[in-house]
Amino acid sequence: MSTPSRIEINRAEINKANAQHSTGPKTEAGKQRSSLNALRHGLTGQIVVMPTEDLQAYQSHLASFTGEYHPQGATEDNLVQALADTSWRLNRVAALETNLLTLGIASEHSPITGAPQQIQDAMSIVAALESQSKALSNLSLHSQRLSRQFERTVAQLRELQNARHAQEKQQLNDLVNIIEMYDSREETYDPSEDGFVFSTVEIASHLDRRERSYRARGTALGSEAAA
User: Fold this and answer.
1) In terms of CB atoms within 10 Å, which of 122, 165, 171, 197 comes out highest?
2) 97 in Cβ contact with 136 (< 8 Å)
3) What is the pLDDT of residues 28-85, one digit of tens each?
4) What are the φ/ψ torsions at residue 47 (nearest 5 degrees)?
């Protein structure tokens, strides 16, 4: 880790002093802009969570995607973030569709009077669909576009991760071969000398898996020979 320069230290001290004198925005407009900062995308600065939405729910939503894909590196981080954001927006479209229909039903009256309430409600829904048809059509197009974007991002992320996993597997195999060679000579070996960055746990797990695979293969060959 590099030592911070004098310029960086001075800048940090100045920022700290300025922060102590700052009391935040004074006007209502400034306060509103400040309140939206918590809703902004950490990478692009765009607002992905609307003021009426639950920021904590979004953070939990994002954490679920991170927990599923375990991204490594900036590219995978961005792709997982894009997946979470697209999924969040798809959920918003579904909610907007429901809200539109609810608003339409509340403002429309059944053209049939004196009919049972169930029939009047059904006719109100039909009238609401007709009155909100343009908005619902736009939402449907938006949903289709987001769905295609989600599918493309998933495919891109999986392709990238599959390539990374294959490379890691090959590197682990190479490393284990080197370790076994040094062990046969009763010599010590430091993987970092050759640029390997795997942890001891990862190396041990790979050794165990490979050993089990060899044993399973030997058992299968023995069974075939016996047959």
Assistant:
1) 171
2) yes
3) 544 444 444 444 444 344 557 777 677 888 889 999 999 999 999 999 999 999 999 9
4) -85, 120
**In the numeric block, which tokens belong to residue 227?**
């047959």
pLDDT in tens, 21-41: 444 445 554 444 444 444 444
Closest CA to 55 of 63, 65, 66, 67: 63
Closest CA to 169 of 137, 132, 140, 210: 210
Tokens 């979470």, residue located: 84
User: Between these two residues, 10 and 167, which has the higher pLDDT value?
Assistant: 167
Report the 3 state secondary structure along the chain. Answer: CCCCCHHHHHHHHHHHHHHHHCCCCCCHHHHHHHHHHCCECCCCCCECCCCCCCHHHHHHHHHHHHHHHCCCHHHHHHHHHHHHHHHHHHHHHHHHHHHHHHHHHHHCCCCCCCCCHHHHHHHHHHHHHHHCHHHHHHHHHHHHHHHHHHHHHHHHHHHHHHHHHHHHHHHHHHHHHHHHHHHHCCCCCCHHHHCCCCCHHHHHHHHHHHHHHHHHHHHHHHHHHHC
What is the distance between the alpha carbons of residues 80 and 156, in angstroms, rounded to a whole number? Answer: 10
Question: Whole-structure pTM over 0.70, yes or no?
Answer: no
- What the block records as the tokens of 106 is 């509340």
Residue whose structure tokens are 């109100």: 124
